[in-house]
Write a structure and sequence with these properties.
The complex is a heterodimer of chains A (158) and B (109).
Chain A (H helix, E strand, L loop, with lengths): L9 E7 L3 H9 L2 H4 L11 E6 L6 E6 L4 E11 L3 E6 L13 E10 L2 E9 L5 H9 L7 H15 L1
Antiparallel strand pairs in A: 1-7, 2-3, 3-4, 4-5, 5-6, 6-7
Chain B lengths: L5 H6 L2 H11 L3 E2 H5 L6 H13 L3 E6 L2 E6 L6 H32 L1
Antiparallel strand pairs in B: 1-3, 2-3
Classes of the chains: A alpha+beta (158), B alpha+beta (109).
Chain lengths: 158, 109
């Protein structure tokens, strides 16, 4: 069943005090240096988070137990201006190779720094999988668990 | 780090998640939402108020009744989570990019 919801894309704009080349490099090659380690969909803790360079590169997490957790892949690769990633994690928090939501990050030089325009779109495609998410709505592993995890991370980061 | 956490806080309550679940099936009046929930109708109204303030639901007047619906321009539950999630992740990215740029500057000086 589809929820009949078409959510607006998640859009963020931020200014980074670093040139576009550096911002692009940190976002992609340095992905594992800033990605919150607690945000893994796997059973085991996240050891490393990786975006492989170039179109077709894999976007995945490497877990402590050695398993790889795929999240998506690189659709467009235009350093240092733009990267387009496929995020293939559905509303049930599971990887689905047939699901395509897009994460686009555009880096524009602005003065000494970089304006970063971020968009995560086509979220309505998560709708079918969202039925599974609703089933787990009240479970410990569902929203409650994730939100607790997020709260812990937010408190740690602040 | 600043987290705009209204949607986040709104979703942290199990009753509010159940209210949202009911609205996922279609627009409803307060009475219909409250049916079968183990809380009073005024309590449901209070929860709706919080969900509305968080941008998760919208309402419209229909005669004497007020009809609530999941806000299609605002946030599905998944979107609410992603919105929070990316806020935190991008703040971490900004900090790391600026740290790296600073290190480089220090090296070349």
């Amino acid at each position: 069943m589809s929820l009949g919801i078409k959510p607006a894309p998640v859009k963020k704009t931020l200014t980074v005090a670093a040139p576009p080349e550096k911002a692009f490099e940190v976002f992609t090659a340095g992905f594992g240096r800033w990605w919150p380690a607690s945000h893994s969909i796997g059973e085991s803790p996240l050891k490393e988070a990786i975006i492989e360079p170039g179109v077709g590169g894999r976007w995945y997490g490497l877990l402590e137990d050695g398993t790889e957790n795929p999240w998506g892949d690189v659709l467009d690769w235009e350093p240092p201006h733009r990267v387009l990633l496929a995020w293939r994690i559905g509303g049930d928090w599971k990887y689905d190779p047939d699901l395509l939501t897009e994460v686009e990050v555009v880096f524009t030089a602005e003065g000494q720094g970089t304006r970063v325009d971020f968009e995560h779109r086509h979220l309505e495609r998560m709708g079918d999988a969202a039925e599974g998410a609703r089933a787990s709505f009240d479970s410990e592993g569902g929203w409650a668990g994730l939100l607790q995890m997020f709260a812990a991370e937010a408190a740690k980061a602040s | 780090m600043a987290y705009g956490n209204t949607a986040f806080a709104a979703l942290s309550d199990p009753t509010r998640r159940r209210v949202l679940e009911r609205l996922a099936a279609g627009p409803r009046a307060v009475g219909e939402i409250a049916e079968g929930l183990p809380v009073s109708r005024p309590a449901v109204s209070q929860h709706l108020k919080v969900l509305k303030a968080a941008g998760l639901v919208s309402d419209r007047q229909d005669g004497a009744r007020r009809i609530y619906a999941i806000d299609p321009n605002g946030l599905g539950a998944m979107r609410a989570w992603l919105d929070q999630f990316w806020d935190g992740a991008l703040a971490a990215f900004k900090a790391e990019a600026e740290r790296a740029a600073n290190d480089e500057k220090a090296e070349t000086q």
